[in-house]
Amino acid sequence: MVSTLIYSVPFGCSFAAIVALEWSGLPYRLARVEARDPASKQHPAFLAINPLSQTPALLTHPGAPLLESMAILLHIAARAPHSGLGFAQGTPACDRLNSVLSFLHTSFHAAFMPAFQAARAADGDARAVVWREMAVEKVNQGLAHLERLLAGRAWLASDTAPTIADAYLAATARWAEPLRLARLADYPHVARVLAALEDDPGVRFAHAIEDGLPATSRGGFHGHVALDQLAAPAS
Ligand SMILES: N[C@@H](CCC(=O)N[C@@H](CS)C(=O)NCC(=O)O)C(=O)O
């Protein structure tokens, strides 16, 4: 079954799911949401799939939406059991993966939200200063924790190959410098892993997709689908 991932630009955390799909070798299509274009972000077919208007959303089958990054990444890993993207539940490796993923999602991703809020604030909105201060503190705390997790390890949850946790790290840590929240050079283990990820064909593919450039898939990508063509969820 060819699944369809709805991703958004610019800089969506849905980047992680593109990378994971590419690493998995599973067949998939992509549907693009332009987050700064209301016609795209509020497209009725997208809202029918996710009324929150958030990405990622994965149609595992036509009309069968799966929402939330964690659920989507774990679904991809489970559907590609020999990819090394995830591990069997209940094993120590899976416990570490689940723990790292939860941290990345509930603490690290969340740490950036006040900075995005500040970036959208009207000129002169005094709250923006406070929001940015919150983001600087929390993002640096998050990077310091990731630095500890990565000391002496090749990847966040594996020593042999990247997992879905590294895909999510690539999607989120890239926000720190453009938003001027932290310097990655202060976190050498994080910087090392991010540099390795930037060199990875799946990550390069996801960047090319986001940037609208020709993208070379390892084979799973079956092209884009227009939002109009998305199947409505079965009621
Ligand atoms: N809990 C959701 C949050 C996803 C999320 O925040 N996505 C952002 C892009 S990084 C988005 O779609 N934001 C648009 C909005 O909230 O209106 C998940 O983890 O999938």
Structure overview:
This protein has helices at 15-24, 38-41, 44-49, 69-79, 92-120, 127-150, 164-173, 188-198, 201-211; strands at 3-9, 28-34, 57-61, 64-67, 221-224. With 235 residues, the chain is α/β, with parallel strands linked by helices. Helices cover 49% and strands 11% of the residues. It has 2 domains: 3-84 and 201-229, Glutaredoxin, CATH 3.40.30; 92-198, Up-down Bundle (Glutathione S-transferase Yfyf (Class Pi), Chain A, domain 2), CATH 1.20.1050.10. It is globular, with a radius of gyration of 18 Å. Strands 4-3-1-2-5 form a 5-stranded mixed beta sheet. It has 9 helices and 5 strands; from the N terminus they run βαβααββααααααβ. Strand 1, helix 1 and strand 2 form a beta-alpha-beta unit. Helix 1 (15-24) runs antiparallel to helix 7, helix 6 (127-150) crosses helix 8 (188-198) and helix 7 crosses helix 8. The site of glutathione has 10 residues, from loops.
